[in-house]
Amino acid sequence: MTSGKIIGIISLKGGVGKTTTVSNLGAALANEFNKKVLIIDGNFGAPNLGLHLGLFDPKVTIHDVLLDKIRAEEAIYEHPAGFHMIPAAFISRQIQPFKLKQKIRHLKDLYDIILIDSSPNLNDEMLATMIASDELLVVTSPDYPTLSTTLRAIRIAKQKKTPITGLILNKVRNKKFELNIDDIEEAAGVPVVSVLPDDINVLESVFYTSPVALHKPKANSSVEYKKLAGSLIGENYKDIRLFPRIRNLLRKTIPKDEINRTLMENDRK
User: Fold this and answer.
1) In this structure, what CATH number is given to the domain that contains residue 25?
2) Which of 63, 79, 136, 154 is deepest in the core (most CB within 10 A)?
3) Sheet containing 164-172: which strands, arranged edge to edge?
């Protein structure tokens, strides 16, 4: 069996959609591409992944793994969304975050993809995610304050020598006051591989503790998550909705994020 890959999802600003991205990529990879997926809450101090997915009172967590009380396999939960997950404890306990890589690396033999939801703060928790990951995706939004923190996260990741696959540009409203892809790529030196709309369906899906990719599978955000998920494993997701297909036939230029995804997809085939 080919060893799987660990992908860390990071940001240096709360509220940009990092946890939502982890849950939706997990759901898309498991359901659209039939991959065996594990998602891990690496936000040890202020975990949210379980809350997003309806796991409110986990009996065992990644904290127990890092405290050497149990093996990682014993902290895995099967989620109805089709993936497995290791939650974190809501009441934080003193741990050694840098044990994360040692504790989970053998799970690559059991899963095609492992996604880590990192801390949004520049601390040992985020560094532990960077060190444990084979590659990183950085979530940002199209405004200067978030971009400044994104650039800092990128610099740190490069110092740790963990490859950055690309930027996920989230909560886009297509307004003139927003930064565009070219501005962001020029500043970051990293390609934008997904542009996600500011979609009310995402907020609704969080309320129902179900990834939007499953809750509203035809929503624009859902389709974008599926496209990104496919490109991460070298597969193409075809949007079967009628209006987007007509719009794509009539457009004169191909969006930059779509070009970047195609390049990534081809590299991974």
Assistant:
1) 3.40.50.300
2) 136
3) 77-78, 84-86, 37-42, 113-118, 5-10, 135-140, 164-172, 192-197
Q: Kindly provide the residue ranges of all beta strands, DSSP E only, lying in the chain, ordered along the sequence.
A: 5-10, 37-42, 77-78, 84-86, 113-118, 135-140, 164-172, 192-197
User: How many independent structural domains does the chain possess?
Assistant: 1
Q: How far apart are CA 253 and CA 142, in angstroms?
A: 21
CA distance 73 to 55: 17
Rounded to whole angstroms, the Cα distance separating 169 from 185 reads 11
| Residues 192 and 167 sit within 8 Å (Cβ to Cβ) | yes
Q: Tokens at residue 79, please?
A: 């989620």
* C-alpha distances out from residue 189 to 71, 170, 228, Å: 39, 18, 19
Residuewise pLDDT in 10s, the chain (269 residues): 468 999 999 999 989 999 999 999 999 999 999 999 999 999 999 999 999 999 999 999 999 999 999 999 999 999 999 999 999 999 877 899 999 999 999 999 999 999 999 999 989 999 999 999 999 999 999 999 999 999 999 999 999 999 999 999 999 999 999 999 999 999 999 999 999 999 999 999 999 999 999 999 999 999 999 999 999 999 999 998 888 888 888 888 999 999 999 999 999 98
DSSP assigned state of 86 = E
Q: Rounded to an integer, what distance in angstroms lies between the CA atom of residue 265 and that of residue 228? A: 9
